[in-house]
Design brief:
4 helices, Rossmann fold, 20% helix, 10-stranded mixed beta sheet, 14 strands, 213 residues, 2 domains
Length: 213
């Protein structure tokens, strides 16, 4: 099994960064979370599974698609339900679309917390919008984030209380033997200056966000 794509009800990428082609070529399973199914209709694609309490999407659901219904009075968000289903089916690489934006900021924040849940289950979950969000941990060693044309902002935040960074190189504001803390966003909106940023985390969980300029 390769990669699962999950569609939530927030905003899809507005810039053409190749995400539709990647979705077509690299995705083995598509799950929609409630009104995330609207994105599938707009893309002319039929998902494999739709989950949710369907308080947001009240139109007719497609036939010949697995539907997993729940009640609104539940602990899991619809997106977390979809992530749990992907994990149950054995997927370790998950791309989450529609996880940011829209009128409900609390859902965006909940989806970032869902990234942590997926990480704790041994999964690599990326949130893909105009910005791309990833988690990096000490087990990853040095991770390279390419940007040969200098078109991205590179930000790093502490998801855990502290994140100890061995080094961040290839950027306008490098770091070495630095402790990031949740209460001070020193890592926001850095710039990649040497074709790629190189980050090595010693401990903790770092949230990496790359955003087009």
């Amino acid at each position: 099994m390769n990669r699962c794509a999950i569609f939530a009800g927030g905003d899809l990428p507005q810039k053409d960064n190749g995400w539709k082609e990647e979705l077509r070529r690299k995705t083995d399973l598509i799950i929609c979370a409630d009104c995330g199914y609207r994105h599938m209709k707009e893309l002319g694609t039929v998902p494999d599974i739709i989950v949710g309490d369907f308080d947001s999407y009240t139109e007719q659901l497609p036939e010949n698609v697995e539907i997993i219904s729940s009640i609104p009075e539940k602990d899991d968000t619809d997106t977390l339900m979809a992530v749990k289903k992907a994990i149950e089916l054995g997927y370790k690489n998950i791309d989450l679309y529609g996880a940011l934006g829209g009128p409900r900021f609390e859902h965006s924040f909940a989806n970032i917390q869902t990234m942590i849940y997926a990480f704790q289950q041994g999964c690599d979950l990326r949130i893909i919008g105009d910005s791309i969000l990833r988690i990096q941990s000490a087990d990853d060693g040095e991770v390279t984030y390419p940007d040969e044309l200098g078109e991205l902002y590179f930000s790093v935040f502490a998801l855990t209380e502290t994140v100890n960074i061995d080094y961040l190189k290839g950027v306008k504001y490098p770091l070495e033997n630095h402790c990031l803390v949740q209460s001070f966003p020193i890592g926001v909106s850095n710039e990649i200056t040497e074709g790629a940023a190189r980050l090595c985390v010693n401990s903790g969980l770092a949230l990496i966000i790359t955003t087009p300029k």
